[in-house]
Write a structure and sequence with these properties.
Aminopeptidase; 2 domains; seven-stranded mixed beta sheet; 11 helices; 16 strands
Length: 373
């Protein structure tokens, strides 16, 4: 007769603020580096968009799992999982993972993502046995320079999106989301394109609106389209209405006049090159039609629902399915504990994306679609 599984006596529950000291002690026992600090745990327990589950037996923590929830998307991220050495190999890690998946689903998350060290073969085997698939890798990811695998599992078995493999580039400045998005689309169509900050800044200078809010100008749809056309790509531009794009993001009438002149000049250059400008705005149906034609759409959104900032923001659409639009977002919200994995193929409910894909009081909608020429 087989001995009872020691892990079955362990109860899994939500962590409480009074678990703080025990969580820190558990972290110290389980990891030599890349530990969650007491300050980070306190934030996650009280203010973070997170959930911590602990495995407890007779008042002693045997393990924990930390989940982070991306705002406005349907992704949860496994931030950390810990099991004390004495009970490893007895099924507790698997129980914690199943509990984490249940918790993510309870928070209306359709996907759970994680990073794992390439040399942690036991963890890799566990995740893959639970149905996680490899999305890619992060070179030099950990403090000791070890690489990481990126893994993902769909928590809804009917979700199997056909996604375009769009290489990811993280914007290096707060105002270069448009340039970073354009770089991703370019490299998806032309793998020989080399990512660099020099290219990012060069594209931004070409596409900038000159002014925006109180800082540097962002990129407008005409500027991004013109920068792409000059590099040999076929481009379609979708915009809603007339007027100066992003003009309501500045107060100075002098600055608005400069933006208007820049936009008009860019429009004339596009017209001279025969670039179509479709003034029907942006719908989910149009995005999906562009994807079906082999296009890579760059869509302007308001970042309020994701980052609580009323600023225009460019993302790259990588695919869609019955429920979601998937995007690469060049901004990684590291202050909220996010990593690159949170910004790649982000699933956003279609109706929510439709409400996000407009900016400002006039509800500007804009999309720039790149194709092979």
């Amino acid at each position: 007769m087989n001995p009872p599984d020691a892990a079955t006596a362990v109860q899994i529950r939500q962590a409480r603020p009074e678990d703080l000291a025990a969580l820190v002690a558990l972290e110290q026992r389980c990891f030599d580096a890349d530990r969650i600090s007491q300050r980070q745990f306190r934030y996650l327990l009280t203010k973070g968009n997170a959930s911590i589950l602990v495995a407890e037996e007779a008042g002693v923590l045997q393990g924990d799992v930390v989940l982070l929830f991306s705002r406005a998307t349907s992704v949860a991220r496994l931030y950390s999982i810990a099991v004390i050495p004495e009970v490893r190999g007895k099924g507790l890690g698997r129980r914690l993972m199943k509990a984490a998946e249940t918790e993510a689903w309870a928070h209306h998350r359709a996907y759970l993502r994680l990073e794992v060290r390439k040399d942690n073969q036991a963890a890799v085997r566990l995740y893959e046995s639970l149905g996680y698939r490899r999305l890619g890798e992060f070179p030099d990811y950990y403090a000791d320079h070890m690489d990481a695998w990126r893994l993902e599992k769909s928590l809804a078995p009917d979700l199997h999106p056909d996604l375009t493999q769009v290489p990811f580039y993280e914007q290096s400045l707060e105002f270069t989301c448009g340039a970073a998005s354009l770089m991703m689309a370019m490299k998806a169509l032309t793998p020989e394109v080399d990512f660099s900050r020099t290219l990012e800044l060069r594209l931004w200078r070409e596409a900038t609106t000159i002014f925006m809010t109180s800082g540097h100008g962002g990129c407008g749809p005409y500027g991004l389209a013109l920068a792409a056309v000059k590099r040999g790509y076929a481009v379609d531009v979708y915009v809603s209405g007339e007027g100066t794009h992003l003009g309501d993001s500045v107060r100075s009438e002098h600055k608005k006049e400069v933006m208007r002149l820049v936009q008009e000049d860019m429009f004339e250059q596009l017209r001279a090159r025969g670039v179509p400008v479709i003034r029907t705005g942006v719908t989910v149906q149009e995005i999906e039609e562009c994807l079906a034609r082999g296009g890579i759409p760059l869509v302007l959104i308001s970042s309020w629902q994701i980052y609580k900032a009323r600023v225009p923001h460019w993302v790259v659409v990588t695919g869609s399915d019955e429920n979601f639009i998937y995007v690469n977002d060049p901004f990684v919200d590291r202050e909220e504990g996010e990593t690159l994995i949170d910004s790649i193929h982000m699933p956003i409910l279609k109706d929510k994306f439709a409400s996000m894909a407009r900016y400002g009081r006039v509800g500007l909608q804009a999309m720039v679609v790149l194709y092979h020429d």
